[in-house]
Amino acid sequence: MILKIAFRNTFRQKRRTILTALAMIVGFTLLSLTIGLSDGAYGNIITMFTRNRIGHIQVHREGYLDKPSLYKTIDNVSAVGEVIQSVEGVEAWTPRVYGAGLGSVGEKSTGIQIIGVDVARETQATRFDQKVVEGSTLGETASHEAVIGKGLAKIVSAAVGSEIVIVSQGADGSIANDLYRIVGIVESGDDATDRVGCYLHIEDAQELLVLNGRAHEIVVIVSNINQVDKITRAIKTQLSDSTLDVAPWQEVAKSFYRAMRTDQQGDAISRLVIMLIVAIGVLNTVLMSVLERTREYGVLKAVGTKPMQVFWLVVCEVVIIALGSICVGALLGVLVNYLLSIYGITYPEEITYGGMKLKTLYATVNVRCLVIPAITVMLSAAIVSLFPAIKAARILPAKAMRTH
Amino acid sequence: MEQNQKTDVIVAESVTKVYATDGIPVNALNGIDLTIQSGEFTALVGPSGSGKTTFLNIISGLDSPTEGKVWLAGKVLSEMSGNELSDFRRDNIGFIFQAYNLIPVLTVEENVEYIMLLAGVPKAERHERVIAMLESVGLTGVASRVPTQLSGGQQQRVAIARAMVSEPAIILADEPTANIDSKTGADLLEMMRRLNEETGMTFIFSTHDPMVMESARRLITLRDGRVDTDEAK
Ligand SMILES: Nc1ncnc2c1ncn2[C@@H]1O[C@H](COP(=O)(O)OP(=O)(O)OP(=O)(O)O)[C@@H](O)[C@H]1O
Ligand SMILES: [Mg+2]
Fold it and tell me: What is the count of structural domains for chain B?
């Protein structure tokens, strides 16, 4: 009965209901939008960061991540690779070799990072070929070719066609040096890497560093980023090799991950502000409606309605409006986020995040952008209705009857 | 009247009420001693501000006296908790107020059945009693309308029906005829008089209406919060 009265009251005071609902709907949609956009942006950044660069999961010799060393290698690369490929959810894997050295083009020399890549695998896994902005990518067979970062090319004044001499130390302690022809220039999206990066065919790199088929890193790409943790565990058990570390991207790029987390917490504050504004608006209309109906509550109490029932009456009215608003808000939220996930918002200026350049902000439609606003709207509506509800429950019928 | 067959349904003992709004004390009731017996049809009269409404509110537990005690159906009102009072009012007292005392979003039928619903009367019985009650107050065919679709007199009939349907021991009515024309008022009064005789319910009115005074069996006049005269007719 209380519910019935509450339900009909929401229809009787149409204007007030619409006003209250509007505040809730706008709040819901805004919340949904901020979550959709922020999740979209972070999702986008994470995809770029992992998919195009560090991969979703990396395998190393134990301790390599904390303290990289030329000698901490994965010895049976293709065997490990095969095991990884057999794990469900794995899309691709690619081995890498790393080494430090000195690169000279003509008169100019600078410190470089040698990155040996399996060209075919690297292209498949991290779209290596698409990062080449000038010249061409490395050939699929080792032929003393090099592709260098854009920054590095500038430092040593190299162009496509130049020759680079690399001096380094081999794993056997020997001094290694060799000559490579620069066939392409890459832009990985990370300027720091591009200032030192020098990509060689993995076999050329292994020969230079005297690694005999060994590699430092295996990068794994999975088909669904949300299953990274599960797949990481699966790879670990499948490999069953305690001398190998298997780490998800969150661990590989700890500081990047942490920075993003903090950023996301910042978003929570803007959500709180939106909700506060909505709550104040709702409180206002609900309080007004309680004051306006003092007499009615007085009658209800005079004829034997318990204070608790009057309390629930007010809460129910607000909750009913909130439920309706959540439904409408959900539709609007999904629609707006969906549209923005297709068309996006173009930044007035290109922004850089963690070395990645972003031009357009795309929203995403996920469960979070429905569930979080729904819970927030419902909770704040319920909380906000407490005060007017207590007020209504405490109305003294004798007094209320005197007010016309 | 055969006094010895009646029971005392309301006993007020030196009831005083002091309102202290804005710091200025107003003595609304100044020591009222009254006994109302079952089956009475009593009018409470007196000039405006003499304390009629205040007295009705206090004997029904809607308001508490500053001093003094009230027994209602054998119980001391001031000793009951809020919820006990709610239930007690629901089961023992029917209210009819001057005006606007229906729940606007409920239909006539729902308004009348509301108190029985609170009391947990089964649906079939509720419906039966509502229909019978509406008929005896002369309201047929409007059961599914809402109060705003009724005239003032019809609304007051609904209020009477609501007050009486759960068969409370006492009906309290604060100026029930003040907002309706005298023809309708006379009809309603006649109806309540009949119900009083048929059911033996106790009726107490506050009124300025000579017609109500005329038909009352006992006339209590209040003046400045005191009982001025108390005559049985
Ligand atoms: N809530 C209140 N605060 C302060 N004074 C009040 C309050 N309610 C009533 N009074 C005062 O108490 C006195 C009695 O009021 P009450 O309403 O009982 O009179 P009444 O006999 O019902 O008058 P009327 O015939 O006009 O309805 C009046 O002087 C009134 O001003
Ligand atoms: Mg009065």
Answer: 1
- Determine how many CB atoms are found less than 10 A away from the CB of residue B62: 24
Interface test with A, best of B58, B103, B116 (most A CBs within 10 A): B103
Q: Buried b / exposed e across A65-76, counting CB within 10 Å, b at 16+?
A: beeeebebbbee
Q: Residue B118 domain-assigned?
A: yes
Is residue B26 a part of any domain in this protein?
yes
What ranges do the domains of chain A cover?
A: 2-50+257-400, 63-241
d(CA B86, nearest CA chain A) in Å = 4
CATH number at residue B202: 3.40.50.300
CA distance A90 to A80: 13
For residue A171, give Cα distances in angstroms to A74, A102, A205, A227, B59: 14, 16, 11, 36, 103
Residue A338: φ, ψ to 5°: -65, -45
Which residues form the domain of B64?
8-232
Residue B15 has pLDDT above 50, yes or no: yes
Model-level pTM greater than 0.90?
Answer: no
Note whether residue B1 is domain-resident: no
By the CB < 8 Å criterion, does A3 face chain B? no
pLDDT of residue A145: 94
- The number of beta carbons lying within 10 Å of the beta carbon of residue A50 is 24
What is the per-residue pLDDT across A80-116, written as a single tens digit (0 to 9) for each? 999 999 999 999 999 999 999 999 999 999 999 999 9
Say yes or no to pLDDT of A354 above 60: no
Question: Which atom belonging to ligand 1 lies closest to the Cα atom of B51?
Answer: 18
pLDDT tier for residue B223 given thresholds of 50, 70 and 90? very high
Cα A43–chain centre separation: 3
Instruction: Give start and end residues of each alpha helix (H) in chain B.
Output: 52-59, 82-92, 108-119, 123-136, 152-165, 182-199, 210-215
Is B216 inside any structural domain?
Answer: yes
E strand intervals along B6-64:
8-19, 26-37, 41-45
pLDDT of residue B3 exceeding 50:
no
